[in-house]
TrEMBL record:
Organismal lineage: Eukaryota, Metazoa, Chordata, Craniata, Vertebrata
Catalytic reaction(s) noted: isopentenyl diphosphate + (2E)-geranyl diphosphate = (2E,6E)-farnesyl diphosphate + diphosphate; isopentenyl diphosphate + dimethylallyl diphosphate = (2E)-geranyl diphosphate + diphosphate
Source organism per UniProt: Malurus cyaneus samueli
Protein name: Farnesyl pyrophosphate synthase
Listed Basic and acidic residues bias regions: 1-13
Gene Ontology CC terms, in alphabetical order: mitochondrial matrix; peroxisome
Pathway: Isoprenoid biosynthesis; farnesyl diphosphate biosynthesis; farnesyl diphosphate from geranyl diphosphate and isopentenyl diphosphate: step 1/1; Isoprenoid biosynthesis; geranyl diphosphate biosynthesis; geranyl diphosphate from dimethylallyl diphosphate and isopentenyl diphosphate: step 1/1
Cellular localisation: Cytoplasm
Family membership: Belongs to the FPP/GGPP synthase family.
Amino acid sequence: RTGPRERSRDGPARRAGGAGRRAVSWSFGGIANRPMNAAYHERRRPGAGHAEREDSPLSSRRFVRDLTEDRLGHPEVGDAVARLKEVLEYNAPARKVNRWPAPGQRTSESLRCALAVGWCIELFQAFFLVADDIMDASLTRRGQTCWYKKEGIGLDAINDAFLLESSVYRLLRHYCGKQPYYLNLLELFLQTGYQTELGQTLDLITAPISQVDLSRFSEQRYKAIVKYKTAFYSFYLPVAAAMYMAGIDGQEEHENAKAILLEMGEFFQIQDDFLDCYGDPALTGKVGTDIQDNKCSWLVVECLRRVTPEQRRILEVKTWILHGAEGL
């Protein structure tokens, strides 16, 4: 779940907020019956996008070189950095670029910094997803085998996730270390990492292994998981980073943006939870495991909101049988 998604992504369903704010609809008709259009599936389709040009300033290969080639000549760490290169190339592959800076914004310095921060966000997400796949025992991610499931990798992927996280801060300092917004970006990434880890903790302790306790699957808990595990890093992080780089650092502006973006994160995760069960893996790029993992997903929360006492007992028994759980 975690994250910009993608299954692994992670996420909520939320509040009826202040004046003029629209509450997220928890009705199945309001969310699940919306057509999953072709454009949405195209964005998620494995390999969607254009082939990268090696000389493009957008090329992921360029940033892989920045993170590895200056160290490959050092015999003491050469093998380790070669492993880092392999991790980067597998877990942070080429992405389709949907937006290009406006002509007035294409100064070489601002463009390089913007692209570097974009790749920092990609690596940040890859760090979370590699770890999340291990914890969820997932099989596929983005249309390919999960990194830890590849032959010869296994639990070594835990350290590989740490390498991805470290790469974020190395790249950020290399490209933005002298910029006036650098400390704001650094604090943003650190705070978002902490928030996401809190969300992951909520996700794990809400559905402990070999236990069935449907009372844990409340709307309030679901919203908290989604807000912290998915919405902050998938939605608020990239927009907040762009705001800081554009010189927008006022608390009010960021709070207003955050309120909107966290709502978007909820909608996103509700749809992602639906696709985890009903989506076509050929289109989503992953095999859904929320039911097998006994996750606090939107589907089970919505189910519990609607069931009769007898139906709830049936759900408990079926879940207990599926997980060989204790406590019934």
